Amino acid sequence: MTPLEFFRRRMIIAALCGMAALMLLSSQCAQPREGEDVITTPDEITFWHFRSEPKQREALKSIVAQFEAENKCKVNLVDLTWGEGKSKLFAAFNSGAEPDVVELGSDWVAQFSSGGVLKNLSQNKITLDKFAEFTHAAAKYKDSVYALPWNVDTRVMFYNKALLRKAGFAKPPTNGTELLRASEAIQALGDAQQSANASTNNRIYGFGANGSDEHRLHKKILPFFWSAGGDVLNDSGRAVINSKENVQGLTLYLALARAGFIETQRQLDNMFVRGNLGFWISGAWLLDKIAKENPALEFGVMPIPAVGKQSVSIAGGNYVAVTYKSKNSILAKRFALFITDGKQALELLKQFQDAGIPADKRYMNDDYVRSMPHRDVFLEQLATARVLPIHPHWLDIERVIEDAVVEALYGIRSPEQALDKAQWLITDIVTRP
């Protein structure tokens, strides 16, 4: 099978699987009617969440314990992972075994709310007034609130100061052209290193480029599209991914990949911590990883250098929703309001710094947040960051974007051809009935 046939086959299989999952989800919850609140288990609810690392889990448990004491109830915590969480949620909703409260990524809310499996919180006069404005769109479906923003964050550019200095640069790059030049210079150091000792396991690379990495690659390429002036969907919801601006952004990403190393996010995080990468786009979790594993690393963080006039990154976040069939929707709603309150979100951040900045605008610029190392850069980047397009079929669109980038990365298609194909596929997705 040729590489092109492999990717075509992968696209067809992925599309069929996605359609089947959504059809099954819709068949279970089609045309839901909002009834009265249900109380079949008055003192107990279940919360499915993604804070599955030991330190995260313990921090969450301590906060949940406060709610349990105040409400004389039990909150059962169930861990999910971002790699398998979506499929487990589909299975739970389709089998009627869903939790009372669930944590969702910002790009998942529209899909689940449109499937009729989440409570319409607007019917209980729950609003988004206390949350930052840019978090509102992802929390809504057809102008009603279906989830509450919990915490937000963004991606920034990490850079190795020692490698940059060794390559002859006195300061970090400020735009895409300078970023490519600096990455190429660091890559040349790695090439010379390899020539001197071909067996070295510690060679250096200019830029870390995500390759095939589901649910992650799109977060690396969209800042290049956006800062070049491009987009995925226009204001009317029509696909515009094959614009000249997006071609420019993808072309730069490919050039950076050639001046670097292509791998998964996890592996590239590890490489940066070891000091093997000059530049790498990552999140706040990397700060904690560096502090634990290589505190002597000489590094800096900065906004992602712009392809065009302005640096733009992803504004992501985590949301909390109450499920439609919750066995105790009154207590579940009370818990959702409690856990997303800025006081609790800030306490979570104090216990582990990759928890995300509170989405509650009263706490977003708290003195503690600003006092954290490098967090000023994250707040600066967040000011120009963008949320992902809000669409019920976003996860299908995301898959198309990521496959297009992979095809271009490995030379199966040119940037223009890859984005033309993505334009055709996304147009088909957004015109579904």
How would you summarize the topology of this molecule?
Layout (H helix, E strand, L loop, with lengths): L2 H27 L14 E6 L4 H18 L2 E6 L5 H11 L5 E5 L3 H6 L21 H4 E2 L2 E2 L2 E7 L1 E5 H6 L9 H21 L8 E6 L6 H11 L16 H15 L1 E4 L1 H10 L2 E6 L2 H9 L5 E4 L12 E8 L6 H12 L1 H10 L5 E2 L8 H5 L3 H8 L11 H16 L5 H16 L3
Parallel strand pairs: 1-2, 1-3, 8-9, 8-10
Antiparallel strand pairs: 3-12, 4-5, 6-12, 6-13, 7-10, 7-11
Description:
This protein is an alpha/beta fold and 433 residues long. Helix content is 47%, strand content 15%. It contains 17 helices and 13 strands. It has a 6-stranded mixed sheet with strand order 2-1-3-12-6-13. The protein has a 5-stranded mixed sheet with strand order 9-8-10-7-11, sandwiched between helices. A two-stranded antiparallel sheet has the order 4-5. Strand 1, helix 2 (54-71) and strand 2 (74-79) form a beta-alpha-beta unit. It is globular. The chain starts with a helix and ends with a helix. Residues 1-35 have low confidence and may be disordered.
